[in-house]
Amino acid sequence: xxxxxxxxxxxxxxxxxxxxxxxxxxxxxxxxxxxxxxxxxxxxxxxxxxxxxxxxxxxxxxxxxxxxxxxxxxxxxxxxxxxxxxxxxxxxxxxxxxxxxxxxxxxxxxxxxxxxxxxxxxxxxxxxxxxxxxxxxxxxxxxxxxxxxxxxxxxxxxxxxxxxxxxxxxxxxxxxxxxxxxxxxxxxxxxxxxxxxxxxxxxxxxxxxxxxxxxxxxxxxxxxxxxxxxxxxxxxxxxxxxxxxxxxxxxxxxxxxxxxxxxxxxxxxxxxxxxxxxxxxxxxxxxxxxxxxxxxxxxxxxxxxxxxxxxxxxxxxxxxxxxxxxxxxxxxxxxxxxxxxxxxxxxxxxxxxxxxxxxxxxxxxxxxxxxxxxxxxxxxx
Length: 381
Fold this sequence. Notes:
flavoprotein, Butyryl-Coa Dehydrogenase, subunit A, domain 1, 4-stranded mixed β-sheet, oxidoreductase activity
């Protein structure tokens, strides 16, 4: 299938991941999802495919790819399952990328190789129970020990992905290190005083790993400061700008998966002597779903190509995330309607997609935050 705007390498990558999603993920993910089980074997296979290293240079074991390649993969995975797609997205965009962007040479050498190979995962500790969209309201603190050799961290974080698996090697947390000063600090898994609560009971993304974290006099070496002291908030705003493109790609994949499943069902299900796909009402509904998925894809690819080219992409990333997440919710609703009662049964993929879609309008910046970003970039204050 020709896909204008993609290189031959990107098309080959897309087709390879599409086959993996259909042949390896689709047959097992429904059962894993129902049991709220993390897909360790699938994650291992993705590591062997080099997917965790896509946007990183070969000097750290990466694939010398780009952010466009990563987003192509996220879309293809989400056409079948979003839990696996968000596991990869968070592992790269929120876990490994901060260390790659802001880490010292020593931090990169220590942590990146295993993360890039998919042998380990990292979390992104920004959100707090009382500070979601208002990330500047961080209450977690980190103070230097009397001898100046350690950071002593106290506080809590909420809704943190990839933070409690047996593969998790670290969580990077934002904390107040002084008055009007937020810094980023690497906290290795198993550090005394670092407690991972049991996994949440979630509406969707039931095969992804999400926990609340608490820090009680948790001590880490002073060298675990990530980047410049006091620049933690600015660093993570940059990371979130990139992550919005990734979530837009994931959202597009879910939206396209709803089209795929609806086409399949409409060609098989009969009502009043005909397949339901022969009725104009269903045809128009699916046509609208395909239109929405197509425009969402155009939006995230525009933002991704701007990022890769080194151009400003902040507004386009917010537009892509806002539009694609809305499209995902709309398509999931319509796909469930097309399936009728079967769409309410968890054995059908659209039920899983319906449950997974809503978080896309919330995670990594709510739709309201995206509108704020767009309006401010247009000069509105």
